[in-house]
Amino acid sequence: MAANARRTLSVFTDKYSRQFNIQHLREEDINAAFQVIFAVILDDDIIKALGFSSDEASMQSLESFIREHVNTHLTVGCFTSETDELIGVDVLYVRSSNDNLRNYGPEYGESFCNYMKYLKYMERRQRYNFAVKFIKFLTSLGLFILPEYQNSDIEKRMLPIRTGVASMQGIRANGAALIGKTMQNLAQRLRYKLLEEIKEFRDLEYLIGAAIFPIKIFGKITILRTSSSSSSPSSSPPSSPPSSPPAQKRPPMVTDLAIDDD
User: Disordered: where is this region (predicted)?
Assistant: First the structure.
């Protein structure tokens, strides 16, 4: 692989015979990723419900927050094969059980403060429902796709990539709070387990009346296994001489597991 090449995670052709590459971003892709995200972010269900469009301070805070989370080791992009245009971005991030999350004051904007309450609440529910057994889990700020490509089944191709990205980081658990039947049904088809259905209630009073419920939390847990010889120690071949190069470590294999109900 060339030094500046992207790591390719998947290649697919949509129903219009257009080919796409799902890849990790390079540094030079970061600005294009921001352009995709901010072209469509006001159409995001939560962003719309919280009234960001009429709250300038919140929009500035949101832009800074998104910029802090877009990077080359977790953020995944969907590129057209023909022109190499970036048309979709999944802003993935990792949460740890000992994260010291920042608090935001009113100067950051009311909508943004409510958005942070929402994120923290959904992260707590994910941890409680399936990630409490693990130190870390992977989740997403959102999957952002340019309007002209939103009917190309790109979500169906990008959502399963999250499991592979998590495994590359040595993380077994990945999940998300999903809104809308399209994404919720897609998660079920991809063998994500429905962990919790959230309806309007007091803890989310800033979203009461918004047409986003029920919000459904889905999760998936995988076993990370490395390839190893099945031979017993007594039958193992003798060690290679010192001059022989060490065997290359194989990438981890990922096996989906149903999540325990306990």
Answer: 226-262
Domain assignment of residue 32, yes or no: yes
- When divided into structural domains, the chain yields a total of 1
pLDDT tens readout for residues 176-189: 999 999 999 999 99
- Distances 146 to 1, 33, 164 between C-alpha atoms, Å: 29, 11, 24
CA dist 166 and 230 (Å) reads 26
User: Cα dist. 202→110, 115, 219 in Å?
Assistant: 18, 16, 24
Q: Smallest Cα–Cα separation from 215: which of 76, 81, 46, 75?
A: 46
Give pLDDT tens digits for 44-67. Answer: 999 999 999 999 999 999 999 999
CATH number at residue 107: 3.40.630.30
CA 52 to each of CA 1, 109, 206: distance values in angstroms, whole numbers, following the listed order: 42, 9, 13
Q: Estimate the crossing angle of helix 110-126 against helix 56-69, to 10 degrees.
A: 40
109 three-class SS: coil
Note down the domain range covering 71.
8-229+248-257
At 46, which amino acid appears? I
Nearest to 66 by CA among 90, 43, 50, 88: 90
Give the span between the Cα atoms of 5 and 109, in whole angstroms: 39
Contact 255, 223 (CB under 8 A): yes
pTM of the model: 0.84
Of the CA atoms within 13 Å of residue 249, those in its CB half-sphere come to 5
Helix/strand/coil for 195: strand
Tell me whether residue 63 is in a domain. yes
Q: Which residues are registered as beta bridge partners of 88?
A: 78, 145
